[in-house]
């Protein structure tokens, strides 16, 4: 019921179709070229799928896809699971690219840097530097820990900081920090290989966060994220850093605004920078604050880069990540914004600007520094 990457490569390309059953968010970070993205339950009725071809089902690590392939075989399809899943394909692809780079005398990272200076100068580099200036994210004497998760956003942020160092008008230092909270060997290898290819000198430190949250039933991903941030603050401070940089982008900001309104009954946003409440003297900054996700994807694809969305070794079996009933609210918000944009092309910009144009005279109540204020408090004054 399984097929390896090597066996797949030996087949005629017209004899099979790769069916990628991963989530939209995972696929946004990287996918096998030519693969058809479909939910497992929809494969049999998807008009894009040729039932006369071998169907190669692909998930993240080749676990969920085994059951899906077996079910398709029971329905009469010629279906197999891709052994090792997308991660296995990615590692094979990286090995081939490594050999190619060696033949080209190691110019890949330079080409990526050149793409930021030219092709993506307007949409990525200029928006990055605008955020740095507008929100005063980088100041003289800063020691910044650029936190790399292994995804497209944080890897791009690392390259942008390297470029900023080349053009800096004042002195500041940058450390490229990767926390391993219990990655599988394959996931860690993907992160290390991408860092090598992009010439990013990462520092890796380890923790046992994944093991700590594995048996937590309620919101394990939320708890994991909170614990990871605390560990990043702590290790960054040990390195003498006063700031940590995270790779949240423009789309994350507008999605957070809507999520707060629709699911949290509150108006709030993801701030471009924050003082840490638990680590005195430390700050969190978001230098990709004005960069669009589609532009990040375009940069990734232009340079032939492949990343992973979640390096968690439990992703394939995590009910929070994969249970359709508990589907990510962020995915729902993305779909809502996409629908609204069809009628109003300015809707994204309007959402972003809405939290910059709050009129307190028309707000019934608000909180400031933990204190609740109500319009009746001063209504008769």
The low-confidence runs, each spanning 5 or more residues with pLDDT under 50, are: 313-326
Strands ordered across the widest β-sheet:
8-7-6-9-11-10
Would you identify the CATH architecture of the largest domain?
Answer: 3-Layer(aba) Sandwich
Task: Count the domains.
Answer: 2
Order of helices and strands: EHEHEEHEHHHEHEHEHHEHEEHHHHEE
What is the typical, i.e. mean, pLDDT? 89
Overall, the morphology is globular
Please identify the structural class as seen in this structure: alpha/beta
**Strand composition percent:** 5-15%
Specify the CATH homologous superfamily of the largest domain: HUPs
CATH class of the largest domain: Alpha Beta
Give me the count of strands: 13
Please write out the topology.
Elements: E1 2-3, H1 5-9, E2 16-20, H2 24-29, E3 36-37, E4 54-58, H3 64-74, E5 79-82, H4 85-103, H5 108-117, H6 121-134, E6 143-147, H7 152-167, E7 173-180, H8 185-197, E8 202-206, H9 209-213, H10 220-238, E9 243-245, H11 250-264, E10 273-275, E11 283-285, H12 293-302, H13 319-322, H14 329-343, H15 347-354, E12 365-368, E13 371-374
Parallel strand pairs: 1-5, 2-3, 2-4, 4-5, 6-7, 6-9, 7-8, 9-11
Antiparallel strand pairs: 10-11, 12-13
What does this structure look like?
With 381 residues, the protein is an alpha/beta fold. It has two domains: 2-91, Rhodanese-like domain (Oxidized Rhodanese, domain 1, 3-Layer(aba) Sandwich), CATH 3.40.250.10; 107-322, HUPs (Rossmann fold, 3-Layer(aba) Sandwich). The chain is built from 15 helices and 13 strands. The chain has helices at residues 5-9, 24-29, 64-74, 85-103, 108-117, 121-134, 152-167, 185-197, 209-213, 220-238, 250-264, 293-302, 319-322, 329-343, 347-354, and strands at residues 2-3, 16-20, 36-37, 54-58, 79-82, 143-147, 173-180, 202-206, 243-245, 273-275, 283-285, 365-368, 371-374. The strands form three sheets. The chain has a six-stranded mixed beta sheet, sandwiched between helices. Helix 7 (152-167) links the parallel strand 6 (143-147) and strand 7. The protein is globular.
């Amino acid at each position: 019921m399984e097929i390896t990457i090597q066996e797949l490569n030996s087949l005629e390309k017209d004899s099979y179709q790769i069916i990628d059953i991963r989530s939209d968010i995972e696929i946004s970070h990287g996918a096998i070229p030519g693969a058809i993205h479909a939910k497992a339950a929809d494969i049999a009725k998807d008009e894009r799928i040729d039932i006369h071809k071998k169907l190669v089902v692909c998930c993240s690590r080749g676990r969920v896809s085994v059951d899906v392939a077996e079910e398709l075989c029971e329905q009469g399809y010629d279906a197999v699971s891709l052994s090792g899943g997308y991660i296995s394909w990615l590692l094979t692809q990286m090995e081939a690219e490594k050999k190619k780079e060696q033949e080209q005398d190691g110019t890949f990272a330079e080409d990526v840097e050149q793409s930021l200076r030219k092709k993506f100068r307007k949409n990525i580099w200029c928006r990055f530097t605008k955020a740095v200036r507008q929100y005063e994210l980088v100041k003289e004497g800063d020691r910044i820990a650029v936190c790399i998760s292994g995804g497209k956003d944080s890897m791009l942020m690392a390259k942008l900081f390297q470029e900023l160092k080349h053009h800096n008008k004042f002195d500041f230092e940058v450390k490229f920090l990767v926390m391993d909270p219990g990655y599988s060997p394959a996931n860690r290898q993907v992160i290390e290989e991408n860092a090598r290819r992009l010439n990013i000198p990462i520092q890796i430190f380890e923790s046992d966060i994944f093991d700590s949250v594995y048996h937590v039933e309620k919101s394990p991903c939320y708890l994991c994220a909170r614990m990871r941030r605390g560990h990043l603050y702590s290790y960054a401070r040990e390195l003498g850093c006063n700031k940590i940089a995270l790779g949240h982008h423009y789309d994350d900001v507008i999605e957070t605004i809507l999520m707060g309104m629709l699911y949290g009954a509150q108006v709030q946003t993801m701030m471009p920078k924050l003082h840490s409440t638990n680590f005195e003297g430390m700050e969190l900054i978001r230098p990709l604050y004005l960069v669009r996700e589609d532009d990040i994807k375009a940069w990734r694809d232009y340079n032939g880069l492949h990343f992973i969305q979640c390096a968690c070794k439990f992703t394939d079996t995590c009910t929070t990540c994969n249970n359709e009933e508990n589907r990510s609210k962020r995915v729902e918000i993305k779909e809502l914004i996409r629908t609204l944009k069809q009628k109003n092309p300015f809707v994204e910009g309007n959402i972003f600007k809405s939290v910059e144009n709050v009129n307190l005279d028309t707000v019934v109540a608000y909180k400031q520094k933990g204190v609740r204020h109500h319009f009746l408090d001063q209504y008769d004054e």
